[in-house]
Amino acid sequence: MPLSPQQQAEIDEQRQAPQQTLRAVSSGMEKHLYKAQPVLDHGFVRVIDYMGDDAAICQAARVSYGKGTKSVQNDEGLIRYLMRHWHSTPFEMCEIKLHVKLPVFVARQWIRHRTANVNEYSARYSILDREFYIPAPEHINAQSVVNNQGRGGVLEGAEAARVLEILKSDSNRAYDNYEAMISQDGPGGETQDGLARELARMNLPANVYTQWYWKVDLHNLFHFLRLRADAHAQYEIRVYADAICAMVADWVPAAYRAFEDYRLGGASMSGKALNCVRRMLKGEAVTQETSGMSKGEWREFQEVLTEKSE
């Protein structure tokens, strides 16, 4: 189960004791506080705390403008200007703290975003639960023949069943051995010391679940979401990013709309790619050979033009 009974009891107790505050409050985000959003088979994302809202972004931006300039443009227009011109510091005035339960191999991708504060559940002194990520059949894919770090078509029939059985049996066998190593009850009923938990954990597979608290400002969160909510991101981290996107859209709706437009829905082009677009607009038939791009660059350029025009 995603939440343990103890965690659920703590959440219920906290939700039953709301307190008044004079700080800025986002009504959209308030509904997410202490509610776990299920992700994958055993994972979740939940908001622990947040600071700031759309107004906080504008307040920070206008500090340098001086008194009397607030009427120059409305808040959403200002936020769109800031996003469009890559002004980052006003977005750093908002922060969010999340509680995330996720497979270890997803956590290893996630932790590459080093602009956050993280505290992870420690398997040095706590025992990990017997919970493993086992993909649904529709997410058992072959290796892509185009992208070395991507997926191809879905495996089917006997091959898919064989892979799923290997994943399940290996996970459970590893956990059985993990329990046996840390146990103080020997195989013959005798007492034994048991292996240290910090050593026994190394035998567990990368699909075992871990948990952490992850605190990040909005600018760096948008960077995370731009990469991980992208259609090309690995499915197992993308579903977490999608869940967070829904929360951020309720928290800072104007900022999220700008992010969705300029980052998620936008595209960055090289000088060569932009030159090709200009030539195409003039009616020229541009090919990979005349573009000045490599085959890989040209393929990605074509994908951008096709995806964004659909």
From TrEMBL:
The active site is at residue 228. Keywords: FAD, Flavoprotein, Methyltransferase, NADP, Nucleotide biosynthesis, Transferase. Pfam families: Thy1 (PF02511). Its EC number is 2.1.1.148. Catalyzes the reductive methylation of 2'-deoxyuridine-5'-monophosphate (dUMP) to 2'-deoxythymidine-5'-monophosphate (dTMP) while utilizing 5,10-methylenetetrahydrofolate (mTHF) as the methyl donor, and NADPH and FADH(2) as the reductant. HAMAP family: ThyX. This is Flavin-dependent thymidylate synthase.
